[in-house]
């Protein structure tokens, strides 16, 4: 019995020592987990989403130009800062340029709403000997002329300014916009946008033609 008691006593002491040895790694692991949880938690709650968004967001075109191109003194009719209008040369002969996203979707919607109530059947400039009856079917769209002053949204004024910059031709040289609408099946047969005085009679001037098709 005493031997058995000695064995039990020895076994109990060894088990306590083993539990003590096992408890230390568990405590250390728990402390480590709490530390890591607190560390990452503090990062999560102290993070500045707006600052992070600013870091990820690329520089705007205006800010990029400010950094690269310094402003210069300008006259009464000039612009206060450099501007950039992207374009692609489609052809030199004949001359054709493509200006992507020249007008925003919102600007286009404003033009559509402003011009919609004014649309009428499109007309033709008649040559000598032509009549409305003999030219019926050449142009079947509807349209209207709309100046920037007649646009309460001021959209056309902004578009005119951009056209002036892209063409280097002042706004005062322009004419009202010819806003056109082509429904399915409607057309304008092949034609020239210039008016030959020999066919149309004397002309005060020829024009740089610009259309917004809606």
TrEMBL record:
The chain crosses the membrane at residues 26-45. GO terms for molecular function: metal ion binding. It is found in: Endoplasmic reticulum membrane. Gene3D superfamilies: q2cbj1_9rhob like domain (2.60.120.620). One of its GO terms (cellular component) is endoplasmic reticulum membrane. Keywords: Iron, Membrane, Metal-binding, Transmembrane, Transmembrane helix. Residues 128-147 are annotated as: Disordered. It comes from the Eukaryota. The keyword Signal does not apply. This is Prolyl 4-hydroxylase alpha subunit domain-containing protein. It comes from Brachypodium distachyon.
């Amino acid at each position: 019995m005493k031997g058995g008691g000695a064995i039990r006593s020895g076994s109990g002491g060894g088990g306590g020592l083993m539990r003590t040895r096992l408890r230390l790694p568990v405590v250390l692991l728990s402390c480590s987990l709490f530390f890591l949880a607190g560390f990452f938690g503090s990062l999560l709650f102290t993070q500045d989403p707006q600052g992070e968004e600013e870091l990820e967001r690329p520089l705007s075109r205006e800010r990029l130009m400010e950094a690269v191109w310094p402003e210069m003194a300008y006259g009464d009719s000039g612009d206060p800062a450099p501007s950039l209008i992207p374009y692609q040369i489609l052809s030199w002969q004949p001359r054709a340029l493509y200006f992507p996203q020249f007008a925003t979707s919102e600007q286009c919607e404003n033009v559509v709403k402003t011009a919609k109530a004014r649309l009428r059947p499109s007309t033709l400039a008649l040559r000598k000997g032509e009549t409305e009856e003999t030219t019926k079917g050449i142009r079947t769209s509807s349209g209207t002329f709309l100046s920037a002053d007649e646009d309460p949204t001021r959209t056309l004024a902004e578009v005119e300014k951009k056209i002036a910059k892209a063409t280097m031709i002042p706004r005062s040289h322009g004419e009202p916009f010819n806003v056109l609408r082509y429904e399915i099946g409607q057309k304008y047969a092949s034609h020239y946008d210039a008016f030959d005085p020999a066919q149309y009679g004397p002309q005060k001037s020829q024009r740089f033609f610009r259309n917004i098709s809606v």
